[in-house]
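in:
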């Protein structure tokens, strides 16, 4: 039998030391993770997509349409103002013919002057105009604290045309683009039938549905619109790679999280991650984005993959 070796005091301290080291490493990892997520929240990407509309008039071929969404200007603390500036600069660089903004412009008074400045720049740059719809935050309706409604005149004074359950048409040569805008559905401000009642259903007209909430598309019929553009979900915003955890800050039952969908009957839908953040000023595995649609009209065209660039 071996003689017992007496324990030294340093042996007794080792487990405590190891636990401290582990805790320190976890703390450091958490801090680094938060720093990264703050960075990602401002790391805009540009997504280029083809908007296939073979039944739309050939005059519309090559049109560039930029979708922006969910600026959430005024949400504090956040870097949403910075992300919004980057998004607008990126949109201007795309030389858009038309800009469509799918809601949640602002949720507080901070930074509204800056928002107006950038909206005016978009209006000056887009020859066919800038159109928008309001989101739930614009109406002051949110789970996030301290959200205040936005006066629609602040947006309209910049030259942005808000579509409050209505349509607007712009002409390109002899062709027409019609945008139908549905107001926020969360607060019951929506009236899709009013939009449908004023649709221009002549052959060749490119019809786009603009809505904050994507599920509105489920109430449309095939042929009503060539595409529906929505926001709201932020793509999940914080999308840690856990099964079943795609949407963290949004409605878990939301049928459309982000990206392109074929809803059936030829109904196309794109749900953008948008630009800003809500609840937490963080993003993970879900970079904010602007979307640049290149209209392919007048003839069937070979499908191409989506393209992304930083
Ligand atoms: Fe939003």
């Amino acid at each position: 039998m071996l003689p017992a070796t007496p324990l030294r005091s340093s042996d007794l301290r080792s487990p405590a030391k190891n636990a401290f080291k582990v805790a320190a490493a976890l703390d450091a990892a958490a801090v680094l993770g938060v720093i990264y997520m703050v960075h990602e929240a401002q790391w805009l990407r540009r997504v280029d997509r083809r908007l296939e509309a073979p039944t739309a008039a050939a005059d519309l071929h090559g049109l560039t349409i930029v979708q922006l969404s969910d600026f959430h200007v005024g949400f504090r603390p956040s870097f949403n103002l910075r992300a919004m500036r980057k998004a607008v600069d990126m949109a201007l660089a795309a030389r858009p013919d038309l800009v469509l903004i799918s809601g949640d412009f602002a949720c507080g008074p901070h930074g509204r002057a800056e928002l107006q400045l950038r909206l005016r720049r978009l209006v000056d740059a887009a020859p066919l105009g800038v159109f928008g719809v309001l989101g739930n935050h614009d109406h002051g309706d949110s789970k996030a604290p301290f959200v205040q409604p936005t006066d629609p005149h602040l947006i309209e004074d910049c030259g942005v045309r808000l579509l409050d359950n209505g349509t607007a048409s712009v002409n390109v040569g002899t062709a027409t683009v019609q945008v139908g805008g549905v107001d926020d559905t969360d607060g019951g401000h929506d009236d899709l039938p009013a939009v449908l009642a004023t649709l221009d259903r002549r052959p060749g007209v490119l019809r786009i549905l603009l809505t904050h909430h994507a599920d509105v598309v489920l109430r449309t019929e095939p042929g009503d619109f060539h595409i529906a553009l929505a926001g709201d979900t932020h793509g999940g915003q914080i999308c840690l790679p856990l099964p079943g955890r795609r949407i963290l800050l949004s409605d878990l039952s939301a049928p459309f999280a982000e990206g392109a969908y074929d809803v059936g009957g030829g109904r196309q839908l794109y749900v953008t991650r948008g630009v800003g953040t809500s609840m937490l000023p963080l993003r993970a595995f879900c970079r904010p984005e602007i979307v640049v649609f290149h209209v392919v009209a007048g003839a069937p065209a070979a499908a191409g993959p989506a393209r992304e660039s930083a």
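note: Residues 9-40 form the longest helix (32 residues).
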